[in-house]
Amino acid sequence: MAKQREIGKAGWGRSLFAGIVGFVYFFPVLWIILTAFKTRTDALEIPPKFLFSPTLDNFRSVFFRASISSDSSQATNFILYFFNSIFIAGTAVLLALIIGTLAAYAFSRHPLRGNDTYLFIILTTRMMPPIVVIIPIFLMFRLTGLAGSYWGIILLYTAFNIPFSVWLVKSFFDELNPEIEDAARMDGSTDWRVFFGMCIPQIYAGLAATFVFGMILTWNEFLFALLLTGVETRTVPVAMARTLGGEVGVDYGLLAAIVTLFLIPIFFVTFLLQNQLLRGVTFGTVKK
Amino acid sequence: MTHLVVNNIERHFGSVKALQGVSFDVHEGEFFCLLGASSAGKTTTLRAIAGLEELSQGSVEFAGEDLTESPVQGRGMSMIFQTFALYPHLSVHANLAYPLVRDGVPRKEIKQRVAEVAELLRVTHTLKRKPSTLSGGEQQRVAIGRAIVRRPKLLLLDEPLTNLDAKLRHDMRAEFKRLHRELGMTMLYATPDQLEALTMGQRIALIRDGKIVESGTPRELYSAPSNTFVASMVGSPVINLINGKISTQGDQNSLQMPFGEVPIATQRFNMSINSGDELTLGVRPNDIHISSDTPAEFNADMSVSGRVHLTEPLGDVTILDIDVSGSLLKLVLPEEKATSYSPGQDIELSFQLSDAHLFMTETGVRVN
Predict the structure, then answer these.
(1) What is the ipTM of this complex?
(2) pTM for the whole structure
(3) A143-184: per-residue pLDDT in tens?
(4) Do A183 and B146 lie within an 8 Å CB cutoff?
(5) Which residues of B touch A188 (CB under 8 A)?
(6) Which of A75, A109, A126 is the last residue of a domain?
(7) N or C terminus of chain B with fewer C-beta within 10 Å?
């Protein structure tokens, strides 16, 4: 690893420039978060208000909605939707990572005849927009009865994440020194032990990076979720879209509150893994 | 007693034949060197013996047992790799303990044996650290430690000194000799460096293009190389090879070279030599002297004049490259004598040919 540069060495000019660019990128996120704490009137104010008295009403109405017919407020299903999103994305990405890692190791260490062709074919599934394949997939799901079930959408997301996992993880395996594995074999390790005891620990950072990237993609997925989940298995992006409509127009405060809550898990995962992530994406580029 | 028998092994990678019938045997407790240029097949040979490469043909026997089909894990050998191949995610202690853990050695004994090996190799102060924080020499010693901690019957060493700087290489050569003496294990050492092979090996096998060219003691290879390849691989500075042609006058044969001719007694050659045959004369740089300053028991068989082309001072000695009618000849002079010569200067040389080697030019095979 290169020596860490002294903090602030870049000077004020460059730091300011980086700060401005960073702010431009972060601004929409900040805007959403602020809107989540605004009342409906504040949210629609033009020019936008940056000073306002914050309210938690929006967050409350994500989970409980005032009912017209009775005095008591009614629980929404958002707790379930959040659970669905976490469960479906988490399971699918983890499954894809496990299968992808095993496949990547095979591709890297025991190349087949025409290895690169297979790798290319795997990637072709990512080359077209999902909407192209939505009809056949929808029909397949209807036929097999997988539509609307947890396993259906998990399987689909897993399948969509595997190519990405295989490619990324393979590049990490390719970087490893194969003599280390030979040494472990000579020291008495079986092939499985070499894989789990020698190879996997060396690419933890890469696996973490792959997990986070997969998670971000899957977490935000909308189209398949819209068509292939049922009432019970609905994910947050779909549920969010359904709150958009309504006879009194779009409730931007409510929407912003959902998005803000929706950001938390992915934010959390990324934050926890950020050190690994940095090492993962720079894997092999820095001479050890 | 023969310990390791490598019998006609072949290894093909697609159409590339990395090993084309390699055979040699190593005695118990011997320090055996496999000498060859890069991609000659040294590493593949070691890996084949270790079981890391599947053989296309041939067999490997070790301690009276045919290991050709047996898995890597149970062969009782250790290997030191060119890249050291330390386990980067484990501490030095865990690296050294790894083979013992796999062998199921009790924990208490592991601790004791790791401590012993660390002591022997002077890496005790690094035990808690990760390999990446060690210097090159320390990493090398840890790699040796990991290989010897389980007391293997055979230690394979794949160019272990290539990644070290010159000073460290010199120290480690002595270290390997010491270890070999102290541990008494059989060692098979692959190297591209003839100096390493000559200083450490009890016997040496020369390998080229996946074939063993010759094997023998360092002295045998040096004093009676079987062909020009062996002659030029063994010995430093490299042997002078001069092409010539046989001419016959009466029953007297002589070798005509660009700068003169020498009488050759072809009667004791191991093949018949006729007039017009092209031969190569091999003369070691130490057998060429400056005519005005020959040692006491020196019989000059031939004298030629040339011009100093360049000088390579090595500290205690200097290698002179002399241009003799277009051929460059090397000779070695002690530093104090070499200082009086500089490039461009005329010089008179004398050869002693009693130790000279003669080879067929076309095939490179030794004839005398």
Answers:
(1) 0.82
(2) 0.80
(3) 998 888 899 999 999 998 999 999 999 999 999 999 999 999
(4) yes
(5) 73-74, 99, 102-103
(6) A75
(7) N
